[in-house]
Amino acid sequence: MPQTTSSPAIDHPAPTLQAAAPPVELSLEERLALIDAAMTVRLDEAAVAYEVNTAHIPTEPVDLADVITGPLGTGTGPAPLPDLYPTPVAALLQRAHHRLVSGGWCKDALVDADGARCMLGAIRIEARGDDRLEADAASMLLDAIRRQFGGDVESVPSFNDAHGTSRVPVRMVGQAAGLADARGL
Q1: Cα–Cα distance between 127 and 95 in angstroms, integer?
Q2: Cβ(84)–Cβ(91) under 8 Å?
């Protein structure tokens, strides 16, 4: 039998060990940059964990108009009525908004014992007996409410009575005044 010689495997050079370089002193800016990068990674991980842990909780978006308010009156009497919108329905809604802000808001009645009024009660008193103008203003208010809260709202009184505080109803009267002015009513 012929003898075969095996060829050696490819020779790999033996790894050489290099001495580790001595640590380099980092400047303050470099250390802060490294810490900033590490904190950014940790905050990103925490944000993802928060989203995962709270995904099952139903939430309602917060309207900043409900949170951010202006300064309250100084107690020297009612604030003066701002310049009225030039159109009749918008001006009526603006007066009703001012009445709610200065005279108070109530629910479950047109007027309560303290003289506070509901949304429709404020429109009615400011219409000064003009039934057509009152109806147009109430219709515009209902339209503004439905635009914001959907078509399920039955009426202005039902919307008014569904709230425990004046924030949303009073804001909606103000928004309805702006909507009426934009439509030239």
Answers
A1: 9
A2: yes
Helix (H, G, I), strand (E, B) or coil at 117: strand
For the entire predicted model, the pTM comes to: 0.58
Say if 47 falls within a structural domain.
no
pLDDT digit string (tens) for 77-131?
556 666 678 889 999 999 999 988 888 888 888 888 888 899 999 999 888 888 8
Is residue 123 included in any domain, yes or no? yes
Q: Determine contact, residues 134/126, Cβ cutoff 8 Å.
A: no
Identify whether 27 is part of a domain: no
Beta strands (DSSP E) in the chain are none
Structure token digits, residue 178: 């702006």
* Contact of 160 with 111, CB cutoff 8 Å: no
Q: Domain span at residue 99?
A: 84-182
The single-letter DSSP state of residue 105 is B
User: Does the residue 150 lie in any domain?
Assistant: yes
Return the H-helix or E-strand segment holding 32. helix 28-54
- What pLDDT digit, counting tens, does each position of 136-155 carry? 999 999 999 888 888 788 88
Q: How many domains does the chain have?
A: 1
* Contact status, residue 76 vs residue 163, Cβ threshold 8 Å: no
